[in-house]
Amino acid sequence: MTNEASKSVNRHHYPDSHEAELAEAQSACATEPVHIPGAIQPSGGLISFDADLTMVRQVSANLGTLLGIPVEHALRSSPVALLGSDLLKRITRELDERSKVPGTLTACLGAEAQGLHVTPYRSGTRVVVELEPLPAEDEPRLLSVLNRWLATVREAATPDQLLEWLVEEIRDLTGFDRVLIYRFDERWNGSVTAESRGEGIGSFLGHHFPASDIPPQVRALYDRNCLRSIPDAAAAAVPLVPDNDPVDATPLDLSLGVLRAVSPIHQEYLANMDVASALSVALHDEDEERLGALLSCHALATPHRLSPGVRDTVRALVQITVPQLRLLRTRTESQLMQKVQVSRELLHQSHERWIDPDLIVAQRGEEWLDLFAADGVALVHRAHQGIRGSVPDKPSLNAMVAWLSARPQAPVAWYSHCLKETPLAAWHGPSSGLLAVPLPIDTAQPSWLLLFRDEEIETRRWAGLPEKYIASRGEYSVLAPRRSFAEWQEKVRDHCRVWRRSERRAASDLAENLAALIASQEIHLLNARLHEVNERLERLASLDSLTGVWNRYHIEQTLEKEIASATRYGRDCALLLLDVDHFKAVNDDHGHEIGDKALMTLVARLNTMLREADHLGRWGGEEFVVVATGTTARGAQDLAERLRQRVAESHFEEVGPITVSIGVAACRPGDTVKTLVKRADQAMYRAKQLGRNGVYSVD
Ligand SMILES: Nc1nc2c(ncn2[C@@H]2O[C@H](COP(=O)(O)OP(=O)(O)OP(=O)(O)O)[C@@H](O)[C@H]2O)c(=O)[nH]1
């Protein structure tokens, strides 16, 4: 049956009354103690000893056929009588090894000297020894398979290619009908990403399986023991005798072995899939040490038993592959990091002012879209937003940022592949996915780098309906495995392509860099502003408020400096003291305001006559000074005369003509501000005495 549906994944609808029952059944399934089934598969036998290998505690009910000793007899036998002292010594040595997974041994036991594969391991306070018959003939080609694979893995260019080769190699080695890689997503849903299958065998490639197909405690078992072998899925389990340990009455934990009996629910599941034999090996992901994928082998219709040697070779092939996969993934990741690094360096090389997000995104946004395979980017800093590409509108962005920043654990990165299923649903706009990374700048008002992805409509082929069915077992509800593995299609909407870990890391790096850049630029700008304000304040403190020329305080300082440098370098310098004639009459006739205006006009006139290097200041009232740098006594007298003339020729609106009297004094060796000003003042006084509107020089 092929069915088209256009709803989101993971939203399965049950009648209301079913929901509670389903939840109960799901939790029952998730807690089924699969590691202590009290039974093994019939492909081998088991003996449990005490920790010192001095006493037999439990045996599997089929031990008689394997070793030719009746079970009752075996339970009363000494370990030496059962396994022989040589094998016991080798087992002890193996268990003393520090390796987490004990190695395997081979031995010949029983009346018929049956060749056996021996798997010893510790289980709590006990030692368990699992025994499996070995095939009569040798398997010399296994080593050459491993050697060839060691060379092959290095040739793969991408993780996908390596997995393709792995499934081919393993199907070739084992003769299974189908070998596939079953990859877990973040919610533990599985999808088949690589597959090798025999002719006429149905494909599972691209199929999805719901997380409940492999419950949490089963996944946890793969963390302890990466291999799970089920040679005959339909075979009846062989119980342990007695059921529990006779000393402490606890069940035997078979997690680390290969013979652990199959849960009836799993047997049913495999039967529904038409799987007669199964072998799975875990592939753990990089540094997260998380179960990332399973290599899964199936024989259909009839059981396909592997020899222990071939089975262990499959495990070894996977174990050789995993580090190489990590290497290839790291290589892809480091290529992305390298590109981001280049982008970061370019940011720093720029001399622009990188405070305005708009400017930053305008310059670099396109490149980021490309690097992160994003459709839109927004950089939000304070009240500003820089945007590029397909992003929600500005109010929505603000709302998103407010939500992101208000989370109790904020500011930390946040991402979603389906915004519609998050609290940001109301504002997602054209985007389906978001990767939001905070810029560690200002905790009171966090800034964010937001990368958006559009919807990527995907057609998922589910291996059967993703829902589980509930079955009644006695008075309890349990999850029954799905009966149909026929293909069922579902259109997955509102999702974007997943944000990879490497992309998330690279975005965090970029955000950190942006933060450092913006913060340093802000400090730089603040310093510049502070400098500007200080300068303005300083100027204000030095200027005369009415006329805008230097005030007396400043002009005295200037004069002091000029005298000092004239003395040191033997330069010329002169002082002109200029007093308006009969200014009292101006005030009296026209009022103080008109008087003020006349003083401003006077300053404007004087300024047009002076050089850059001259300093004009107000000495007080209607008295002004000009510090004429690099000017001799003669030059100063000429300048004074020009100024006098210019003023006398000017018209001061309602006041009419105004004249000035100017005293001139040139700087002499040993002069101070006081002595120089005094001489200029005397000269000015003399000019007044001589009838005003004149220049008098003391030199
Ligand atoms: N409007 C105005 N008048 C000022 C200011 N500062 C000083 N004065 C006036 O300038 C006048 C100076 O008068 P006096 O010192 O008697 O001298 P004068 O009238 O200019 O006469 P001589 O200097 O002898 O030619 C005073 O009436 C002051 O009030 C000012 O900032 N604005």
From TrEMBL:
InterPro entries: Diguanylate_Cyclase, GAF, GAF-like_dom_sf, GGDEF_dom, Nucleotide_cyclase, PAS-like_dom_sf, PAS_2, Phyto_chromo_attachment
Segments forming domain Phytochrome chromophore attachment site: 158-323
Catalytic activity: 2 GTP = 3',3'-c-di-GMP + 2 diphosphate
One GO BP annotation of this record: cell adhesion involved in single-species biofilm formation
GO cellular component, one term: plasma membrane
One Gene Ontology MF term: diguanylate cyclase activity
Annotated spans, Disordered: 1-26
Superkingdom, natural source: Bacteria
EC nos: 2.7.7.65
UniProt cross-references to Gene3D superfamilies, sorted A to Z: 3.30.450.270, 3.30.450.40, 3.30.70.270, PAS domain
Keywords: Chromophore, Photoreceptor protein, Receptor, Sensory transduction
Listed name of the protein: diguanylate cyclase
Organism: Billgrantia montanilacus
Lineage: Bacteria, Pseudomonadati, Pseudomonadota, Gammaproteobacteria, Oceanospirillales
